[in-house]
Amino acid sequence: MRRTLLAFMLIAAFGFVGAQELPDEWFWDKSIASIQWEGIKKANRNELDALLRNYIGQKFTENIWLEMQSKLYELDWFESIEPQALPYKDSRDQLILRFVVTEKPSVLSLRVSGNSGLRTSEILAAISVKAGDIYNATKASLDDVAIQKLYNEKGYPDALISHEAIPSEDSSVVVLTFRIEEGAQVALRSIKFTGNTSMSAKTLKGQMTLKEAALFQPGAFQEAKLEESKKAIVDYYQSKGYVDAKIIDVFKEYEKDQATGKNWLVLTLALSEGRQWKYGGMSFEGNQVFSGEKLEDLVSLKPGAVLNYKKLLQDKQRIDDLYYESGYIYNQISLKETRDDIAGSMLFTIVVTELDRAHIENLSFKGNEKTKEYVLAREVPLEEGDIFSKAKIIDGLRNLYNLQYFSVVEPEIHQGSAANLMDLVINVEEMSTADIQFGVTLSGLGQAGSFPLSGFVKWNDRNLGGRGQNLQANVTLSPTEQSVDSS
What global pTM score does this model have? Predict the structure, then answer.
């Protein structure tokens, strides 16, 4: 039924281009020779071509059609998309897909209202939408968030941001207006602490990213930096043996400056330090693959020393990595603690549940439209059937970045066909690998018989034809020299 409906849509569209002599549904399973557009005004044609380029040469099937349609509607650029199927050069073996589109309104201009604390230019620089873009409500909402973040960074924690797309006389355009209720700016006058008997206020302030107002420090209050600072303080205490330290409350007192309208904030953090603990040692359970001595060598803490909880977790991570580098990525490794209140020390046990090694079942790449797959594969020191290795994956990603062919290199790991098999997918986004330089010089003006222009062109492609080869060509033209060099 669905295939029939799709066929009807394409047949109906096809009928408008004058080819009723072809049989119904002739286009199914025909090779796509070309993709054309009609009705494009503001949409980025290059982006559209890139979006569907991979379908050229493929057989036109129901699934292919649904994929193409889904990608186009995901752009949220069009009110309607009408497909047309045309024979390619009067051949029934290939077809042209033509999309007749009606674009959504574009942004005629951008306006900001309600702002007095921040400049309009500063606000517009923070958003992604530009005049001339097709209006997209989702992207405009993301710009609301971007403006909100900007205001928070400038010390306006209560700022409210909204937007409205205002229709104009021309129905094809809208005026996008961002409305702002700034609220009062809040600056941090002072930071105080209660409950800190072991650490001075100066030491604790040194751990915080949130700073008091000073001569060269505006002291803008940001809730996000407060949370960062709270975590930094607790981490610092735990590195000094106070593993139970926590911030139990935060008190805020506001003082309004009547002259400027600015709100000054006095911040008080209430702490519970707990007692200081020493490191009592490490034992291991369940480890068969690696001996306790080998695992103990990875532990940097020494019994009797003040417990540095951050270093303890780093030691555990080294033990995790030892297993992972050997392919035991499914192992369950937990850390148990035992407290000796009399000695004031904490003893730890690493409990390992060992499972089978993982192997790479499939290694594949996505996004490499130009670069050949073998060029990518030779940079990754893993093959199908190899033992899974975190270090080798990291080396492969580093190698791909160092090629300077890609702006993005991201791995995905999926479960394979069996419990101990993994599929590794590496996603890349290609960037331009070609560079061109040229110059022109005027010389010998007014001299009889001389040519007054000299010039050179240098062209280099680091990934010629997607084969990972480098080609450089130099062309020089002058009255005394004409040369072409390549390497």
Answer: 0.65
